[in-house]
Amino acid sequence: MTTTPTERDPEERLRAGFDATIARHDRIEPRDWMPDAYRRTLVRQIAQHAHSEIIGMQPEGNWIGRAPSLRRKAILLAKVQDEAGHGLYLYSACETLGVSRAELTDLLLAGRQKYSSIFNYPTLSYADVGTIGWLVDGAAICNQVPLCRTSYGPYGRAMIRICKEESFHQRQGYELLMTMMRGTDAQRAMVQESVDRFWWPSLMMFGPPDAQSPNSARSMAWGVKRNSNDELRQKFVDMTVPQAEALGVTLPDPDLRWNEERGHHDFGEPDWEELAAVIAGNGPCNAQRLAHRRAAHEDGAWVREAATAFAERSAGAGAR
Amino acid sequence: MTTTPTERDPEERLRAGFDATIARHDRIEPRDWMPDAYRRTLVRQIAQHAHSEIIGMQPEGNWIGRAPSLRRKAILLAKVQDEAGHGLYLYSACETLGVSRAELTDLLLAGRQKYSSIFNYPTLSYADVGTIGWLVDGAAICNQVPLCRTSYGPYGRAMIRICKEESFHQRQGYELLMTMMRGTDAQRAMVQESVDRFWWPSLMMFGPPDAQSPNSARSMAWGVKRNSNDELRQKFVDMTVPQAEALGVTLPDPDLRWNEERGHHDFGEPDWEELAAVIAGNGPCNAQRLAHRRAAHEDGAWVREAATAFAERSAGAGAR
Amino acid sequence: HGELAGYCLMLGDDALIMSQRLSEWCSRAPDLEEDIALANMALDLLGQARLLLARAAAADPGVVPALPDGSPVPAEDALAFFREAEAFRNVRLAEVANGDFAHVVVRLLLFSAARLALLERLRGSADKVLAAVAAKGVKEVAYHRDWAGRWFLTLARGTDESHRRLVAALDALWPLQDELVATHPLERSLARAGVGVDPASTRDEVDAVLDQVFAVSGVDRPDRAPLAGVGGRTGRHGTHTEALSRLLAEMQVVARAHPSGRW
Amino acid sequence: HGELAGYCLMLGDDALIMSQRLSEWCSRAPDLEEDIALANMALDLLGQARLLLARAAAADPGVVPALPDGSPVPAEDALAFFREAEAFRNVRLAEVANGDFAHVVVRLLLFSAARLALLERLRGSADKVLAAVAAKGVKEVAYHRDWAGRWFLTLARGTDESHRRLVAALDALWPLQDELVATHPLERSLARAGVGVDPASTRDEVDAVLDQVFAVSGVDRPDRAPLAGVGGRTGRHGTHTEALSRLLAEMQVVARAHPSGRW
Description:
Oligomer: heterotetramer
Number of strands of chain C: 0
Distance between the termini of chain A: 54 Å
Low-confidence stretches of chain A: none
Distance between the termini of chain C: 30 Å
Radius of gyration of chain C: 18 Å
Strand order of the largest sheet of chain A: 1-2
Number of helices of chain A: 13
Largest sheet of chain A: 2 strands, antiparallel
Number of helices of chain C: 11
Mean pLDDT of chain C: 97
Largest interface: A-D, 49 and 53 residues
Strand content of chain A: under 5%
Helix content of chain C: 55-70%
Structural class of chain A: mainly alpha
Order of helices and strands of chain A: HHHHHHHHHHEEHHH
Shape of chain C: globular
Order of helices and strands of chain C: HHHHHHHHHHH
Mean pLDDT of chain A: 93
Structural class of chain C: mainly alpha
Shape of chain A: globular
Helix content of chain A: 55-70%
């Protein structure tokens, strides 16, 4: 159990270098040394993020075929396509940590890696397309903007690109709702009903209260995460309240009011039991979302096999 | 190649008995002797008729989910269910001739037995439900009423029951069209458009002109068939023209007019080339209809296997 | 009367949406006999739906969607074809998309076990119309439950494949079972008034019926939590799955294209 | 101008309905790269459809369905969402239901081979708008055709299963190919006027392109007759398959529920 100084020193030097990089708020790059736990945390977080983009295609994709104007159909199709693109960048970032997209997909389909719980809620009207843009993408941006400065280089750079596109999506969502609010009574009611359904799930996107968030402390120390759940949730509420007023919708929280003293909005407690149920797999759409993803994956297996066989044959022919 | 008188006489006596039964317009029953060709002709005709009932569920079934009133949905669902029932009687009649439903189904799915070409036309509006009742069931009744007196007992008795139900369906179809004609302009246009599409295919339901109908002569001699194609077609036209007038629709044939001298309506020539194309398998829905039937059959294979296995197990348990 | 109307919509929408899903089987069943049986059950439930929607409209005309002046569309059709998804009050079990034959067997078993227990009690309703609908429905739904029970047993004890498919369907649908025996405030209120039935009062009986089917079939009762709602709202509150609006898009398309149509 | 409008509807509806079918693949493709590619092609065709429907409406406002007074619905949307199936002028190939991935590859190959040949000629249209739409479309559809050709080859020479599926898809879709290069009287008339293109004039070129793909892929050109119409009427005349009204029921449902809606 003794180790020679020569064995110990390099690892200690590497760790010191890593710590110094983190302390400088500089980036760790794929070829840099990093602690195993850091690598595992990153893989878990980036994979979960990538899976969220892919699963997140479904709730909005549900309305592409029914978009009520050709302009909105184009916007929605392009948005869902962007989500596929975000999934691609993020799986690539994960691959720099030595885990392949295929492995990550298997972990998702086996239920061994998570995705954002918000996508386990159903989309029930076209207004949901706007609300997801406004509230869900809005909350995602609050979560993600700090990640542009995250310590792992490929992840941070992917996030810069993603956040830029997400902001665009958020504005489009808000603009859809604004347009609908200038429409008919039925459209206004549709927007309000949608906001009623998505408000609390959006607040839960920031995760459980800080006191109950087990992974947060270490992630913050490593610069993988840069703000606490409750800080980000507060920021989101403060940002959203005036937008709701401008829109003319009521956020469904009787406890929501400006607190002059705190300089923030007070707001009610989300239903953490519902969040727990959704995380446990019993949300309204968990089974549906995974079944959809699994069906697409399985239905496509023969195509991927054909492409591989064809590529091998072509390479073989080229080599000859 | 010599046969003894004792070998010959019985067959000749049987044949004489058969011929006498036919001549008396009496029924041949399953246990009676019959010529092989008679049996084959009957199997072919009854099977084709059974298949027509089953395939015929699809064009109307296409609109059950979209029926525009609950009353019409119930009527349509019950009608399509009746067609399944007709299929059942007819397959049973065929089974008395020694061919099982499973064999006949295989012949249908392999494309080796036909069904009525009319079902290879698409249903494109709810008015088609009415038009099929009025024109298609109407033509079918013209074809089938004589078959109630057909020489083969089980077939004739099945036809009596079927014709009764078909007449009911025909009245329901006509009543739907009549109701729609009392509705909006859009509904009246829908009825006219539907009649425009189904008129000629309905006339073709009586088969090619007599001069080109190879199987007719023998079938008539055997009392399997009792009227020629052209006779029945004329009867149908004469019956339908006043119904169209009462309805307020125009039959799409500029040559259609009363011929005082003949005491019948003259009418134009159907597009026999189109009929030939449809019979050859290139009609608008041939592939679709067979694919639907095949899918239902294949999707149900595991259920039929389970039922058989369960029945065998239960029988085994009972025997023990 | 608003409460009675709302209650009739719950029972009527259950029947209507379930009937719609059953009727999708038409021309697709494993054999002709089952094609006919499924159509029969769809027809039974459609009949129940029509009576219940008509009763809802009579109890409170305010629940019937407004149509153009002079539209000849009867109230039952206005309710079936001109409400949006969120106005439907059916349980989510009735609306999810069809799967294989095991799926229709399991769905019918869960649905009719609960509905039969409910209708049996509803025969004593203080509302004579509801009582009569229930009396008629009991005979129909008893047949549906038996059909489903027989097929459940057959598939469970048939082949390995049928057993596997049956268990998969049961796993998939079980989370939707609880909603059938959960109580909506409206149901509690009408049960107190002797007009409706609190589904929770049928829970033990329904459990016993299902447990017996499971036991005979050698299938374990699933150990799966109920499907969560959204903020506690489920089908009975008008918060449905994504499947309902797709079902309605098909079901309502012709009627809506002709709001003044006669059919 | 009525003729020009009708012609624009043919080309526009082809693109619109094909785009709708392609977009159904979203979140269902064999991998992310193909998911993105299919969405891209759906977007390209949607863009072409919008320009062509707008041109149709400008050429003859009479083709645009009437909406309630004061409805803010633009002409392109009135045309897309408020016409009944029989008013659509697309070929039937565009509308039939999606099958597997081989089906989308074959459909895109047949569709874009014909559309590319057509658009290349249409760049010289006397109608400046059509000429511009065609010039833009040529680049897009050339990519679609290449994508489909590459995948056709890949599936043909991939595995036994991919070969079998490809041939099955080709057999199923081939009877719909002829309609792409058949001439409607309107097309003949506009071709004479130098505004449109007679698709029959592209037949040899399209055949050559397809034959080359078949040859490279080692797949036989199918020996199957064209799908008959009804009394000679096909998609171009508004006589469609049963698939179109179902597609439209989905596509139009939200727009039609809100004929005065703003989106």
